[in-house]
Amino acid sequence: MISNKKILTVSDLNREIKYLLEDNFPFIWVTGEISNFSKPTSGHFYFTLKDSRSMVSSVMFRGQNRNLKFLPENGMSVTGFGRVSLYEPRGAYQIIFEYLEPKGIGSLQVAFEQLKIKLEEEGFFKKEFKKKLPSLPKRVAIITSPTGSVVHDLINIISRRFFNVGIDILKVKVQGDDAVPEIVKAIKFADLTKPDAIIIARGGGSIEDLAPFNSEKIARVVFDAKTPVISAIGHETDFTILDFVADLRAETPSAAAELLFPEKDQLISEIRGLKSRLTLSMDKILSGKKTESEKLIKRLKSPGRRVSDQRLRLDDLSIRIVRNCTKKVQRQKETLLNIIKQLYRNNPSNYIEKEGDRLKLSKKRITIGFDNILKEKKSDLSKLLARLENLNPLSVLERGYSITRTVPGKKVIGSIGNITEGQNVEVLVSDGTLNCKVEGKK
Q1: Separation of alpha carbons 135 and 339, rounded Å
Q2: Residue 340 is assigned to a structural domain of this protein
Q3: Euclidean distance between CA atoms 159 and 66, whole angstroms
Q4: Can you give the three-state secondary structure of 73-130, one letter per residue?
């Protein structure tokens, strides 16, 4: 009975079912939610696609998934195009997807959000990594398309605002699959040439048009650049990954030029105004200092005058010392004469002897007092002479200094601004004068 039946092996059965599935479901569109997503070292995507009642195993091989603009995640609703097949070793059927896209939102927008979160977690958007823009750039590199109005607008605005700045134009594609490697290469080259800033610019467009500027490769090369980078992509409402990574985001390419370059004529006008205010302030300060200096000069006596005053005082003290001493001696002399007269008149021997002793004692006291007065006056005189010596300009010369005066005129030279090259001068030293001629100034 059995011999009349066709008996299939398990492999034969799975093969027949595989052919049946592939013939009846060559290519289909399927929608569902991703779960159990994995990406092994082979690079293939393995996941389960499910809805509220069923699930099916799914795979997307590396050759197809490398073209995706986003990375599938668990819980993501997708719509895909693929074919039904059977994995013979396990007897399990699966869908082999050729294309996937997020359901309800474009793949480019999903890729944008995913990359934004990834780079933000790595710190690419932190303020402490933003480079400071130069205040007065001398040279700027512009990376943009050679066609269109963007490059012409940038050149016109920069030339008008700061006419003598150097502008390097690096022409690249700003749309399409070839744009990313060209922009990356241009950024690296511009950074090597060390301009003051780099502007990456293009006009507005759809998210598909701006897709190159949402590239992770461009984001990383901008982050690693040593030169400050300005993002000037699209219009005010357009945002790209480059805008977040760049050191400054400009709403438009024209705004980038205006942010980077001040108006030179306005700066010159402001500088002239500041110079005028500074000159007036300095003139006012110098005038006040001059008035203050003149007052101090009037209060300050010259050394020569002070020496003359001290000499007069010394002479006056000397005269007073001599006069006082003379008067005191005269009084003692008169006292002595009166005593002598009294002695001659009375002539008692004991009185003479007593008065003689008194006279000797008085003489001794007079001598001691006179010596003390002389010592005191000599001490005062020495102090006055020492003060005079300190005030004497000649004592300064003896310590190795000199005084330079004009010839003729004998005016003391206190600054190199008061003398000219080739002028004759007189140099006073401690033991004489030197006649010299100025050969140069420093």
Answers
A1: 106
A2: yes
A3: 44
A4: CCCCEEEEEEEEEEECCCCEEEEEEEEEEECCCCHHHHHHHHHHHHHHHCCCCCHHHC
User: Any idea how long the chain is?
Assistant: 442
DSSP string, 388-403: HHHH-HHHHHHTT--E
Which residues, listed in sequence order, are joined to residue 423 by a DSSP beta bridge? Answer: none
| Spatial strand order in the sheet of 424-429 | 403-406, 424-429, 432-437
Could you tell me which residues are beta bridge partners of residue 29?
81
Assign residue 48 the CATH number of its domain: 2.40.50.140
Q: Which two tokens stand for residue 390?
A: 């300190």
Residue type for position 135: S
3-class DSSP state of 226: coil
Q: Determine contact, residues 228/198, Cβ cutoff 8 Å.
A: yes
Find all residues with CB under 8 Å of 440, minimum gap 6, and list them.
421
CA angle 89, 90, 94 (to 5 degrees): 105
In a domain? residue 290: no
Task: State which amino acid sits at residue 16.
Answer: E
pLDDT in the model for residue 136:
84
- In tens, the pLDDT along 49-98 reads 988 889 899 999 988 888 887 888 888 888 888 888 888 888 888 998 98
**The two structure tokens encoding residue 279:** 């000159």
